[in-house]
Amino acid sequence: MSPGQLARMATLIENGAPEAFEQLASLPEGHGSIVGITGPPGAGKSTLVDALVAELRGRGKTVAIVAVDPSSRATGGAILGDRIRMQRHHADPGVFIRSMATRGATGGLARTSAALSRLFRAAGFDFVIVETVGVGQDEVDVASLADVTVVVLVPGLGDDIQTIKAGIMEIADVFVINKADHPGVEQAQREIEAMLSLGHGAAMPPVFRTVAIDGTGVSALVDELQSRRQRSHDRVPDGWVIDHIGIAVRSLNEALSFYEAQLGMRIASRETVESEKVRVAMLPAGASRIELLEPTEPGSVIAKFLQNHGPGLHHVAMRVPDLDAVIRRLEAAGARLLGKPQRGAGGHLYVFVHPSSTGGVLWELIQG
């Protein structure tokens, strides 16, 4: 995807265009790491992001930045303060910077920050850095979006650390004391570590010191981010991603009144799968989707599920790069498969694994 195409699709996503979310749902997951950068106003987050990008580019990594700026009262758009501080990367083809306005959203992010992060990861960037607006105690949305959350603080906060500890202090995977050349850095680190010792025990998040304006300490921070990215990849087989979650419902129209009207989700497609005697509505949800399943006949699998269990989670679907190889491995291990691979909604090839082999949940494996 060219920078121009990426920018156009990002604009459509920000504007809530249904076709953009449909296209997003069809894109591959990507293997980039989403890094959330958050902290109180004045901590130097944008300067730190600028230094992180320089270090990552020096290591040959590509970077996309989602910079969440306050909204302009005049236009409703982003004030663009973050982008101005990152101008030295503007002409670098390995860096893509997108500023977006909060547009009244709370939590430190804009409403479509998650979708943009998913877009940039799908576009193949090694790292997607999401910088929140200056946040306080309860703006913690970035933790649900990021693979790793970096909380940036500065010397001299004093009692402010106690004030915000119930909020952003608790979501940190990594702490950074920026402006570490200022007086009070030792005291700031002691206060952070004292607070962490109360709730984390031996598994305390690491604390790094940086001077972002000249790059001091940034290399060690990037080492940590790359190490976490590698550990994350080591835990999941390459190319395996959650494709969708199947939910059995008695009526699609009744269920959609919740998903569409109350959650604000959009339908990507609806279809009837005659072989399974089921009607399906698919709703994109970030990198995955929700699949609502309504039976078309009383004797169908979904109808029997509803009769025995009522509406609820029916299955979890995992997309794999080589379904035949996975099936051979499962059969060799004695796993119970429900029939042979067949074509399902959307034309994908799939097979089910019985709950007795998966710990109690029906799994669907899909050819990627």
Q: Tally the structural domains.
A: 2
Mean pLDDT: 83
Strand order of the largest sheet: 9-10-11-8-12-15-14-13
Share of residues in helices: 25-40%
Features:
2 domains, 15 strands, 13 helices, about 375 residues, 8-stranded mixed sheet, about 25% strand, 7-stranded parallel sheet, single chain, 2,3-Dihydroxybiphenyl 1,2-Dioxygenase, domain 1, elongated, alpha/beta, Rossmann fold
Fold and architecture overview:
The chain is an alpha/beta fold. It has two domains: 3-235, P-loop containing nucleotide triphosphate hydrolases (Rossmann fold), CATH 3.40.50; 241-367, 2,3-Dihydroxybiphenyl 1,2-Dioxygenase, domain 1, CATH 3.10.180.10. The chain has 13 helices and 15 strands. It has helices at 3-14, 18-26, 45-58, 81-84, 113-122, 142-145, 159-164, 185-197, 218-235, 252-262, 301-309, 323-332, 355-358; strands spanning 33-38, 63-69, 95-101, 127-131, 148-153, 174-177, 207-209, 241-248, 269-273, 278-285, 288-295, 312-320, 337-343, 349-353, 363-367. It has an eight-stranded mixed sheet with strand order 9-10-11-8-12-15-14-13. Helix 1 (3-14) packs antiparallel against helix 5. The radius of gyration is 23 Å and the shape is elongated.
